[in-house]
């Protein structure tokens, strides 16, 4: 693919130009939220329905006023949900508040310390929500078998963690992420664990379709500058993947060919 050829991210039949998805939490105020997300170039923004006001709390600052829905695609998520019932109810609340919006990010957590997903509960919640007409982008562990099952159920994107949520540890299991990518028929987006721009680039070089992050930007000393760095890293990593890296070699190989040289 040439440098100037279109390379869109397609999720649930919708086309996006940015492969960076960003969260809206943890910023110091609404102005920083607005500036950082604008600098990221993201078109999809996640909102934790249980923690963010999208109209359910009258008289409080509304994220919709800061990030207008005509500019951004909202991805309500079920952050903080530890059981199927709560996750399903949260998605239904988001659909009601956002006038029938059906694209959601499902996460059902299994442990308060690690925030690892409860895979069994995630599968059950996904099944119920898909039957109710939701289009599910699903947070899961980095198990290729679980990823395959979630796709088979009808999830529109699979989002394996790179490391625990908010840890900033980077891609801890490249082999599993690559295996998920190689076997997927839906977009695969790394979700959780990115700490800096090089982590985002690595995820894209592995062939991921995108990366979702929040803490890596919001917790940086300069969130707006980090958002800009992440934008460039995603673009560079994607281009490197499409370009196809050279084979890794154990020993040196001359940069210039020796054939045809004249020697004394």
In words, what does this structure look like?
By secondary structure, this protein is of the alpha/beta class. It is built from 9 helices and 10 strands. It has helices at residues 30-40, 63-66, 84-97, 119-131, 144-153, 174-183, 197-205, 215-218, 223-243; strands at residues 9-11, 14-16, 20-23, 44-48, 73-77, 103-106, 135-140, 157-160, 189-191, 210-213. Strands 5-4-3-10-9 form a 5-stranded parallel sheet. Helix 1 (30-40) runs parallel beside helix 9 and helix 4 packs parallel to helix 5. The mean pLDDT is 91.
Give the tags.
alpha/beta, 264 residues, 9 helices, globular
Fold topology:
Blueprint: E1 9-11, E2 14-16, E3 20-23, H1 30-40, E4 44-48, H2 63-66, E5 73-77, H3 84-97, E6 103-106, H4 119-131, E7 135-140, H5 144-153, E8 157-160, H6 174-183, E9 189-191, H7 197-205, E10 210-213, H8 215-218, H9 223-243
Parallel strand pairs: 3-4, 3-10, 4-5, 6-7, 7-8, 9-10
Antiparallel strand pairs: 1-2
Helix pairs in contact: 1-9, 3-4, 4-5, 5-6, 7-9
Concise structural overview:
The chain contains nine helices and ten strands. The protein is α/β, with parallel strands linked by helices and 264 residues long. The model has no long low-confidence stretch (mean pLDDT 91).
């Amino acid at each position: 693919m040439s440098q100037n050829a279109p390379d869109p991210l397609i999720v649930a039949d919708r086309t996006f130009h940015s492969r960076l998805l960003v969260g809206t939490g943890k910023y110091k105020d609404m102005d920083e939220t607005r500036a950082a997300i604008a600098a990221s170039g993201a078109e999809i923004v996640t909102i934790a329905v249980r923690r963010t006001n999208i109209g359910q709390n009258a008289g409080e600052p509304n994220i919709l006023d800061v990030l207008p829905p005509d500019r951004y695609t909202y991805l309500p998520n079920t952050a903080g949900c530890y059981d199927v019932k709560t996750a399903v109810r949260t998605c239904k609340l988001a659909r009601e508040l956002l006038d029938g919006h059906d694209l959601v990010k499902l996460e059902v957590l299994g442990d308060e310390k690690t925030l690892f997903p409860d895979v069994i509960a995630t599968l059950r919640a996904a099944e119920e929500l898909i039957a109710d007409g939701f289009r599910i982008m699903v947070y899961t562990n980095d198990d290729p078998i679980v990823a395959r099952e979630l796709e088979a159920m009808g999830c529109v994107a699979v989002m394996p963690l790179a490391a625990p949520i908010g840890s900033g540890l980077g891609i801890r299991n490249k082999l599993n992420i690559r295996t998920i990518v190689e076997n997927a028929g839906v977009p695969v987006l790394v979700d959780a664990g990115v700490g800096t721009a090089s982590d985002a680039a690595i995820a894209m070089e592995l062939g991921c379709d995108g990366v979702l992050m929040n803490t890596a930007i919001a917790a940086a000393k300069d969130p707006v500058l980090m958002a800009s760095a992440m934008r460039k890293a995603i673009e560079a990593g994607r281009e490197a993947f499409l370009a196809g890296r050279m084979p890794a070699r154990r020993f040196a190989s001359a940069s210039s060919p020796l054939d045809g040289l004249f020697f004394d």
